[in-house]
Amino acid sequence: MSKPNHIPRRLLALHSIELYLDALLLAKGVDHTTIRGFEHNLGERTRIAVDAGLVLRSRTAEHLAILSANREYLVIRYGPAPTAKLSQINRVMATLDELSRKVRRMLRAAS
Fold this sequence. Notes:
Layout: H1 7-27, H2 32-37, H3 42-51, H4 58-69, H5 72-77, H6 89-110
Helix pairs in contact: 1-3, 1-6, 3-4
């Protein structure tokens, strides 16, 4: 279980990850209705972003799939359950860091 003082940080990090992926998908021409249809599925967003040219370390791609499979965004946002298995906060922050750097670089190169 995440420490209570980590919950806001984790929620913001997970939401930021989702927004970075959304920004990249929009820049690559994916319709906003399609993106909204993903709900909070980071795995599907990541798959399409990688198909669009985003290159992630294998650990980061695996972690994004785990975040999606464990539904961590929903668990944190709507009430963390004591039995929920969450990623370590430092792993979440490392994923956010890599994603933010690489998406910003791709978006700068596209403009």
